[in-house]
UniProtKB/TrEMBL annotation:
This is NUDIX domain-containing protein. Keywords: Hydrolase. It comes from the Bacteria. Coiled coil: none annotated.
Amino acid sequence: MGKHRSSTGMDFGVRVAAVIERGGSLLLVRHQKPDRDPYWVLPGGRLEPGETIPECATREVAEETGLDARFSGILYVGEFLREGRHTVDVTARMAADGKSEAALGNDPEVEPGSEPTLRELRWVSVEELAGIGLLPVQLKERLLEDASGGWAAGEIYLGGGRR
């Protein structure tokens, strides 16, 4: 999905990220975009119009990591605000099927023939996570805080489904 501009000219979107854990490590992806330092994030991306949060998380995990994963709840909701941009960040807990190995995927929003933005995929232990520049910073802090509980999802997602 392209960026959505509201009538105020502000870029507004919902980003859904996925916490996928294996043996106490989290799956992260490293991005490199033009005119920006590389950065690490949880696999994820923008929610498409008409798509539910679980559908978005499943699609983004498949696109970026090649894994089949099922939605098991919402961990966190946050916001990013700066001049001209407002993003609502939803972090979902996903369970990988365990039958396949993660492999670096792609970002379908990148123009054909352009340099890919996804550069690396890595399982990161909690100890390693402390030293990695994961964005957003508040999410990294919360992931470190909640690591001992295994990033268990609460029952806060009420669905909404299709009407």
